[in-house]
Amino acid sequence: MSSTLAVPLVEETSQSAQSTPNTRRSTVISPTHVTAAMETSRVYKISRRDEDEESIDSGYSSSGWYTAGGVGRAGQLSAFFNTSNMCVGIGILALPKALEFSGWALGVISLLVIAVVTFYSVRMIVAVSAHLALQDVDEDVDVVHTFHNGRVVTPGYVEVVRRCLGVPTGILVTTLLCIAQLGANIAYLIFIANSLYTHFGVPLQSSLCWSVVLLLPLCCMRSVKKFSVFSLIGIISMVIGLIAAVYWGVSSVIGNSDHKPQYESPALQGANWHTYPLFLGIASLSFEGVAAMALPIENSMADPSKFKNVLGCAVLLILVLNLWFASTMVVAVSEFRQDVPGVITEAMPSGAPVSQLVSVCLSLELLFTYPGNAIPLFKLFERSRFSTRTFGDMSRSSRIICFSIIRIIVVAFTGVTAFLLSDYFDIFLSLVGSVANASILFVFPGLCFIASSTHEDDKRRYRFAAVLVVSFGIAVAVIGTAIGARTALHGEVSAV
C-alpha cells in the first residue's frame, strides 16, 4: 500500500447518493493539491492502491470518505461568535489613537484592506491544515486517533507551521505567540490602571497591585473550562462599555453642535504618512486572534465547509465594530482636544457617571480576559520538553507547586512592566502588533501555503495571492517595528 488519492466534490453529476456522501461528481487529485481545499466542500475520498499499480484508473484496493476538520458539533452561529470574540479586546480600544497615527481617510481604507487580507490569509492556513490532515491519511489510513466518524482532525496553527517550514520556524512562531499574548496582557493592565486613575483617582501602583492580586488565583487555575463564567461576565461588560462609550461620543457631538471642532487635529486629517506604520501595528493586533483560533474553531464545527461563510461574517463584524467605535470616538474627542489619548477613556470627562461606567466595564472585561490569554501559554510551557526534562522526576503535587510559582512570577512581571510602560500604551501596542501579530496573521499563513502548493494542479492565482499576503505582512512587520522602535527611543509620537 503506497499511495492515497484525495477526491474533492466539485461538479454536478447524476450518480446515486448511496455511493458518495452527496450527489456531486468527484474529480481525482493528489492530496498535495492544497488549492482544492480553498474551493471544495471539504469532503474527500481517500483511496488506496497497491505499490505495483501504475495508473489511477487501474482500480483501488480500499477507499473511504473523509471530511477534513469538523470533529465537533458546533453550529455556524456558535462558530461565528467564537471567531468574532477573539478580536473584540484591546485592539479595538486602541484604534482611535491608531486613526490619529494614520489620518482618518487612510486609516479607514487600510482597515478595509487588512480585513480582506485577513480573510484570505486565514483561509490559506485552514486549507493547508486540511491538506496536512489528508497527508496523514496518506501515510497511515488506519491511525484511529486522527479520525472521528470519518472526520480527519486537522493540525493546529503551530503544528502547521512546524510541518511546512521546519522545527526552528515552529519554535519562532511559538515565541511570537507568547510575545503577542504577554504583550496584550501587559496592555490590559496599563489600560486598567490609567482608566481607574483618571476616573476614580486610584494611584497607578495601587490599581496594578490589586489587579495582580486578583489575577493570581485565576491564573493558577489548571483548566480554562472553569473560567467560562468569568468569560461571560467579561463579554457582557465589554458590550456595555463600548455602547456607553459610543453613547457618550454621539451625545458629545450632538450637544456641541455649535462648537467648532478642532479640525487641525491629526486624527481628522486625510493621511499622516509620518506615523502611519504605527497604525499598522495596532490594526494587525485587532485582527490577529482570528488566525490563531481559526483552526480549533473550524475543527469544532459540525459542517466545516461552512467555515468560509462564518469567517467572512466574523471579519466583517470585526471591521464594522472597529470602524464604528474608532470613528465615533475620534470625532467626539476632536470636539474638545487636538490629540487622541492612547487610553481612550482619558478623553472622557473625569468623574462623570458615564465615564466611570465605561471605565469599570472595560476594566472588568480586560481583567477577565487576561487569564484566558495566559493559561494556554502556561500550559504550553508546562507541556514543553524543557519542563519535562526539568520537572519530570518530581511528584505531581511538586510539579503543580513549581508551575504555580512560575505563573505567579509571570503575572507579577506583567504588572511591573505595565507600571514601567504606563505612559507608552499606544507605542507599546504598535510594537507588539508589528513584531508579533503581523507575522502571525499574514507572513506565516502565506509562507505555509506557498510551501504546500507545489503540485502541478495547484492554481497559480492562489500562489500569487499568498505571495502578496506574505509581502504585505513583511512590510508591516519590518516598517512598523523600525518606526515603532524609533518612536519609543526618541519620543516622536506626534502625527503633525
TrEMBL record:
The lineage of its organism: Eukaryota, Sar, Alveolata, Perkinsozoa, Perkinsea. Pfam families: Aa_trans. Keywords: Membrane, Transmembrane, Transmembrane helix. PANTHER family: AMINO ACID TRANSPORTER, AMINO ACID TRANSPORTER TRANSMEMBRANE DOMAIN-CONTAINING PROTEIN. Residues 1-26 are annotated as: Disordered. GO terms for cellular component: vacuolar membrane. It comes from Perkinsus chesapeaki. It is a multi-pass membrane protein. Residues 12-26 have a biased composition (Polar residues). This is Neutral amino acid transporter. GO terms for molecular function: L-amino acid transmembrane transporter activity. It is found in: Membrane. The gene is AVT3. The chain crosses the membrane at residues 101-122, 171-194, 200-220, 227-250, 276-297, 309-334, 354-378, 399-421, 427-452, 464-485. The keyword ATP-binding does not apply. Residues 75-482 form the Amino acid transporter transmembrane domain.
